[in-house]
Write a structure and sequence with these properties.
Layout lengths: L1 H19 L6 H23 L6 H23 L8 H7 L6 E7 L4 E3 L2 E12 L7 E12 L13 H5 L9 E6 L1 E2 L12 H7 L2 E5 L1
Helix pairs in contact: 1-3, 2-3
Amino acid sequence: LIRTISLATSFVLGIVTALNFDLPIPLSGFLILAVFGTIWGVAQGAREQAWKETALSAVVLAAAMTGFSLGVWRTEWHTRTAPSNTLKNLLQSLPEDARLEIEGVISTEPELRHNRGEIQLTVQRIRPKKTESWQPVDNARVLLRVYPEWGGERDARLNPALHGILSPKAYGWTIAVETSPLKERPVLNFGAFDMERFLRQKGFAGQLN
């Protein structure tokens, strides 16, 4: 039980640390620490099976080394810089006022949040500029924000397509839209929520507006 608690606690601590600090150790270093901690823990388990005494501090330290290293490694792996040929890298390199066309499948039911809708879109192809040809994308996911201006006299006269893609029936639709990359301001305060990093952890290539 102590080993499990130490492993789980240190895993969470590793995630929190990786989200809030730029660690100088490469990913391979944390992976090596995790392997070492696992081997150490297995050796301690073998001693316990042979009814040999094992120090409690060693049990906690081995589990903490494994859990913390895996927590950091997992977080850094999911938030690492994208290769140059991916949609994630393209969105990171474009200015916020850039326009691009995307085509993809709505992968979950759209959600309504205050004055906007949010659509998870699995992108199949993109066109960065209207003068360029469409480029295929290997099913990268993006979060698309839609502002349909709910309510008022204009509501009934707005483009019905905007309201259509925000309905539950839109799940599974293939849509094409012209949009711009949305970039959050850098997080300056320790412990503040980092939206961009959160989305990268969830496997999103970025946000579009």
